[in-house]
Amino acid sequence: EPEVTQTPSHQVTQMGQEVILRCVPISNHLYFYWYRQILGQKVEFLVSFYNNEISEKSEIFDDQFSVERPDGSNFTLKIRSTKLEDSAMYFCASALRTSVNEQFFGPGTRLTVL
Amino acid sequence: DAKTTQPPSMDCAEGRAANLPCNHSTISGNEYVYWYRQIHSQGPQYIIHGLKNNETNEMASLIITEDRKSSTLILPHATLRDTAVYYCIVRAFFGNEKLTFGTGTRLTIIP
Question: Among partner residues A31, A50, A99, which is closest to B93 by beta-carbon distance?
Fold first, then answer.
């Protein structure tokens, strides 16, 4: 069964450093998402991406965040200058279509900012 | 998106049916009810969704009341692997694509 993959599984970085989290969505999917979950808290939406542009972003997704689909398979989330409060699990998801189609989530990347 | 209300936790004996309730009294006509679950710290997993009719798939059944103000997710024969946080999410057919997660119900299957 096709699945969403994410690398790395765990990333440790120093505050102020740039990080890139990588995702490989399911191959025929068209809609891509990033969510995050701070330890013990809810899963929060960050951004959705379709047709090579952002279709929606949350208040969390400020100028420090960016997303890119550099080729036909990868979908990346970049945090330019990490803060302590960016420590969280980051989940990538993809969907074939919006509306009724379910989103398939990856296993997540645990980001730890020291 | 309409808000949902779920009990914070439930227990169920292994092999029995687990019935997870959800209230969504402000749901509007174009909104679907989705259920996802999250096992430990893994990525959320889609379970089932419905509009107004009852739905069944290989994982679960979804019963939606006639007035659509509440629903119940049924896991017919719960196993230990069903221990997870279960999220009931209401989402419009058109418009916002994002999923808005609440705090869900932490379901513990008891051996």
Answer: A99
Q: Which has more pLDDT, B10 or B1?
A: B10
Cα dihedral A101, A105, A106, A112 sign: positive
Angle subtended at Cα B10 by Cα B6 and Cα B14, rounded to the nearest 5 degrees: 135
Copy the structure tokens of residue A4.
């969403």
Nearest CB neighbour to B45, from listed A44, A50, A105:
A105
- Which pLDDT tens digit goes with each residue over A72-110? 789 999 999 999 999 999 999 999 875 567 899 999 999
Q: Distance (Å) from the C-alpha of residue B101 to the closest C-alpha of chain A?
A: 6
What tokens does A20 get?
């890139």
Confidence (pLDDT) at B92: 80
Report in angstroms the alpha-carbon separations of A32 from A19, A47, A66, A89, B5: 19, 8, 13, 17, 27
